[in-house]
């Protein structure tokens, strides 16, 4: 849930109860299309509804695979973030949790998180760019801020994020004038999302539904399949270096991959064969490699190289970008730099005035 700073606490505003497109009840839309969707997990929100005697629902902003049961842990993560006593600059680029409360739905109790309002996600922003690709010039400040946030999370809040994905009065008026399409079921109304237009503002890291605390053992499945670090795909223990791998994945415009065999085959093509000693740490390595570390050809190794994949990238100093990528894309997590170390990569710092001391980065 997000809160719009443009609203003044007044009487609830009445929203249209007609004039919207009715979607056929048999058509799967929005969260219904998710493989893990279950109606009982979602509170049946109505546009115009007032929650906790304070927050009026204005418009739907999106949906995700993280259910309310995952979000209940999200509070612990935000408590950890808020309790960190530091003036680290990376803290500035985290989406703030303003409030939280509980509501009772027909299938159980749900928690609502009130966040500061945001604009577009990175994926939505790319839709407005030529070719839906961000040039290196625009990519650099985005990566610097992302690495700055991760530096804060790893060293100050001791949190692993695990999954990176980055004008509300206009949305409210749009909902009044052009009510969003929706479908009505027996006990559930599913609204379509309202996407904001691009505006000015700094990118913020959000969605801590899959975050983990540093200092505990982790070996569970995390990250979207296409972003999975080697240690995650191979069911090994993993740590905060999965976030560093993820930064490189976010920086690259890659196709969806839903099969670990294909994902690992592409890693071999780009990174070379993994060290045998590294493979022995995986309880499932024998599924993919023999005892000598030879790939079992469960999926063909594609004829691709990192340099070839960069042929369409727009911007100067592609060589510097590729060096940056290779630092983050390492089989062994201990060979990857920390988020702070990667933030000071030569290519990423290129063009900045470093004569002034930067504190708490």
Structure characteristics:
13 helices; 361 residues; transferase; protein serine/threonine kinase activity; two-stranded antiparallel ribbon; 9 strands; single chain; alpha+beta; SRPK; nucleotide-binding
Secondary-structure element order, N to C: EEEHEEHHEHEEEHHHHHHHHH
Q: Could you tell me the mean pLDDT?
A: 74
In what order do the strands lie side by side in the largest sheet? 1-5-4
Classify the beta-strand content into a percent band: 5-15%
> If helices are DSSP runs of H or I spanning 4 or more residues, what is the number of helices?
13
Structural class of the helix and strand makeup?
A: alpha+beta
Strand tally is: 9
Based on CA atoms alone, the radius of gyration comes out at: 22 Å
| Gross morphology | globular
Task: For the record, give the distance between the C-alpha atoms at the N and C termini, rounded to a whole number.
Answer: 30 Å
Poorly predicted runs: 2-11, 66-74, 166-173
Largest β sheet strand count, sense and barrel closure: 3 strands, mixed
User: What share of the residues lie within helices?
Assistant: 25-40%
In short:
By secondary structure, this protein is of the alpha+beta class. It contains 13 helices and nine strands. Helices cover 31% and strands 9% of the residues.
């Amino acid at each position: 849930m997000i809160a719009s700073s443009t609203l003044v606490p007044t009487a609830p505003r009445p929203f249209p109860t007609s004039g919207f497109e009715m979607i056929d009840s048999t058509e799967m839309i929005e969260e219904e299309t998710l493989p893990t969707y279950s109606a009982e997990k979602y509170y049946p929100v109505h546009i115009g509804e007032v929650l906790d005697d304070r927050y009026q629902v204005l418009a739907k902003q999106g949906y995700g695979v993280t259910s309310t049961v995952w979000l209940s842990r999200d509070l612990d993560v935000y408590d950890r973030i808020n309790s960190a006593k530091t003036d680290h600059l990376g803290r500035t680029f985290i989406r703030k949790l303003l409030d939280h409360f509980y509501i009772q739905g027909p299938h159980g109790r749900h928690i609502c998180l009130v966040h500061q309002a945001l604009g577009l996600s990175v994926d939505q922003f790319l839709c407005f760019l030529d070719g839906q690709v961000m040039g290196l010039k625009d990519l650099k400040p985005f990566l610097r801020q992302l690495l700055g946030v991760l530096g804060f999370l790893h060293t100050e809040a001791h949190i692993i994020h695990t999954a990176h994905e980055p004008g509300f009065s206009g949305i409210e008026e749009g909902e009044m004038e052009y009510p969003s399409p929706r479908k009505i079921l027996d006990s559930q109304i599913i609204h379509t999302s309202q996407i904001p237009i691009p505006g000015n503002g700094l990118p913020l890291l959000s969605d801590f539904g899959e975050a983990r605390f540093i200092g505990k053992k982790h070996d569970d499945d995390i990250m979207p399949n296409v972003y999975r670090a080697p240690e995650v795909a191979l069911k090994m223990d993993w740590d905060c270096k999965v976030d560093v791998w993820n930064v490189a994945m976010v920086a690259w415009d890659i196709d969806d991959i839903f099969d670990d065999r294909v994902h690992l085959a592409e890693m071999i093509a780009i990174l070379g064969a993994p060290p045998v000693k590294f493979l022995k740490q995986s309880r499932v390595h024998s599924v993919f490699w023999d005892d000598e570390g030879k790939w079992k050809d469960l999926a063909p190794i594609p004829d691709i190289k990192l340099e070839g994949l960069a042929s369409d990238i727009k911007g100067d100093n592609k060589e510097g970008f590729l060096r940056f990528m290779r630092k983050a894309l390492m089989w062994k997590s201990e060979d990857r730099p920390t988020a702070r170390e990667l933030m000071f990569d030569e290519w990423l710092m290129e063009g900045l005035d470093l004569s002034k001391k930067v504190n708490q980065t």
